[in-house]
Amino acid sequence: MQKESVPVFIDTETYSDATKRHSLEQLIRQHCPSLFTPFEPPWWLNNGHLQTTYTALAGGKSVPKIQYMRYNIVSFSSDGSENYYFHTYNDFIPNRKLIRLEDGGTLALDLFPQDPSAFPLSTPILVILTGLTGSSNEGYVRVILSKLHTHRAIIINYRGCGGIPLTSPRLYTCGNTDDIRTALAYISNMYPHAPLHGLGFSLGAGIMTRYVAEEGEKSRLRSICCLACPWNMAANNRSLLSTYVGRKVYAPALGANFREMVKQNMEVFQSSSPEIHKAAREVVAIRRITLGQFDDIFTRRVRAYGPQFPFLALDELYEWGSSDHVLSTVRVPALYINADDDPIVSRLPKDGGGSPNVFLHVTSGGGHLGWHTPGYSYLNGFSTRQWTTEPVLEWLKLMATTEVETENGFTPSTIVAGPNGIYHEVDRPDVFWQELDQAKLLMVPTAKQSGTIRGF
């Protein structure tokens, strides 16, 4: 089954320097042929539950390990003072830097390839957002990077993920885009001549969609490709809880990782407001907490997430943080791939939301971030490969030579350097950062996550 958008005319640079006009649909059909090949699962992964479970438990075991250059981002505390947390650090990562943001929190940027001289400075950059509590080590990330030869790649790890401790009492939500906005500004400042393109998985797909919709012609991303986007969070949460396996397996597994994150970083919450500390204690006390319970007890109540908070009810939070209702304002080429048997995202948009820039493709089968199909090894009948790899790579190659026609062109905000190595956007007081020197990297411990499903 396939859903398609209304075509949009965009400029495509050709090798002859002539400019041809094509619709997004025409370009995708011409340059992404593997997207229209049928997804065919192996006999032993023949439904959405099996595909999803395989991704969670074994999907990345056959994928090569990736070596990254690492840049971490740490934030300022609310009073502007330095907010460091001293821990014993047992796993030194020599290529990881810390960069501080507005509220005292920490992000990490993992750069691929490890050798920065492998590509010219103007080489396109693929910016990746993973699924819930995911990191750059997810199998679905590594399988793309292992075959990526046309782009640099930078993975934005969420707060508390990828071996980063929480350094502020704020986590991240389905609707907040300020972290990715700041990370993209940092990347643009580091590689000012390189075009940025986005690849989002699950929760990261929703956040990336909201970012480009909010930014419009100020978007730093020239295009996005999104796999297993959760779309309407409220509707999909209700659908998940309507089934036995959703209530007893998926929902607790998704909530377990957030509970573990709060538990391991309780000292941060103990030193925060009584309201946040109380909510943190409540979520840790529930051994099999669902994601909805976590968001109801903790996320929707924390004022630090933004002026929209607190929300009166969980559905209000999820409706606000959904991405389906912002599709009409997406101004960059956007390819979405979802599966019709995804047990976590069962409610999909009927079209591209009225945006001429959106192309939605729904496969028959694939589960949630699965799409495992028989591998090429005849010696191992249980080897697999991910069907989505080729469509994603074809899309990235296409977008590297494609520009969107807009009335004023894309005009991201100007970045200004201030004292003490602080950078900020001139018209966005919330978008600013400061790199942390390598010595302070030693103070950051590796966080452990023990949830059943990570990266969704």
Describe the structure.
The protein folds into two domains: 9-14 and 21-232 and 322-441, Rossmann fold (3-Layer(aba) Sandwich); 241-321, no CATH class. Strand 6 (125-129), helix 3 and strand 7 (152-157) form a beta-alpha-beta unit. The chain has 456 residues and is α/β, with parallel strands linked by helices. It starts with 8 loop residues before the first strand and ends in a 15-residue tail after the last helix. The strands form four sheets. The chain has an eight-stranded mixed β-sheet, with helices on both faces. It has 13 helices and 17 strands. The radius of gyration is 21 Å and the shape is globular. Helix 7 (244-264) crosses helix 9 (274-285).
